Automatic annotation (TrEMBL):
The keyword Glycosyltransferase does not apply. Keywords: Membrane, Transmembrane, Transmembrane helix. Pfam families: PAP2. The lineage of its organism: Bacteria, Pseudomonadati, Pseudomonadota, Alphaproteobacteria, Hyphomicrobiales. This is Phosphatase PAP2 family protein. SMART domains: acidPPc (SM00014). The chain crosses the membrane at residues 21-41, 74-94, 101-122, 142-162, 169-191, 203-222. It comes from Bosea spartocytisi. The keyword Endoplasmic reticulum does not apply. Residues 102-214 form the Phosphatidic acid phosphatase type 2/haloperoxidase domain. InterPro entries: PAP2/HPO, PAP2/HPO_sf. CDD domains: PAP2_like_2.
Length: 227
């Protein structure tokens, strides 16, 4: 059995063209529709599913569950993703995978700029049918928590998979990343601070972003990172 070459992407992380293409089409369709001033009827219905019937101000579940959801959403905040990215980049750097570390940081920083730019350009209003149970400071589409958590965690999974060159480790990182991504995105809807299509758009763009980043970082790292 031949030994994998430096920078080789394990099979669970190799971007299949159809997945990022479909995700890209979903994002473009949502962004175009929303930017033109249209909305989706199911957005309202889905948000209300997370609220007490007849009392939109009250999220479902006991107080401890509501607090747990706020804790979960914090993982997708700028602060949460900063520490996650820093830990992953430093670990890669100390293990000798300096291009992987640099590529990861560059991917996350540029994703942050793109997220804020899209919010400003599209300017969608936040949901107004339920009381927000978390503070917000920017426009609604795409969900920054959904996009940045997907772009960051899937890129980290890609970098760890490339460094390990093992399919089992790559798959484990990918599964854990998606569990976090889904929980963070759903928490934004539960807290009433995002329309479901904001989250879907963020997830879609995050898949595209991380697929491109993983392919690019893998090729770049192959030039000099340890084998």
């Amino acid at each position: 059995m031949s030994r994998p070459v430096p920078g080789q992407i394990p099979s669970p992380l190799r971007p299949r063209l159809v997945v990022p293409v479909l995700a890209g089409l979903v994002f473009v369709a949502l962004a175009g529709f929303i930017a033109s001033g249209h909305g989706f009827a199911f957005d309202r219905s889905l948000i209300l599913l997370f609220r007490e019937p007849g009392n939109p101000a009250q999220p479902l579940g006991p107080a401890w569950f509501q607090e747990a959801v706020r804790d979960m959403t914090a993982f997708g905040s700028f602060v949460g993703l900063f520490f996650i990215t820093t830990a992953a980049a430093l670990a890669l750097w100390l293990c000798g995978y300096r291009r992987l570390a640099a590529g990861l940081v560059l991917s996350v920083l540029t994703a942050l700029l793109v997220s804020n730019g899209l919010k400003i350009a599209i300017g969608r209003e936040r949901p107004d049918i339920v009381a927000h149970t978390a503070l917000t400071f920017t426009a609604s589409f795409p969900s920054g928590h959904a996009f940045l958590s997907a772009a960051t965690m899937l890129s980290i999974a890609g970098c760890v998979g490339i460094a390990s060159r093992r399919d089992d480790i790559a798959l484990l990182c990918l599964v854990l990343a998606w569990v976090m991504i889904l929980l963070i995105g759903l928490s934004r809807i539960y807290l009433g601070v995002h329309w479901p299509t904001d989250v879907l758009g963020g997830w879609s763009l995050g898949v595209v972003w991380s697929s491109v980043a993983t392919a690019w970082i893998g090729r770049w790292a192959a030039a000099s990172d340890p084998g």
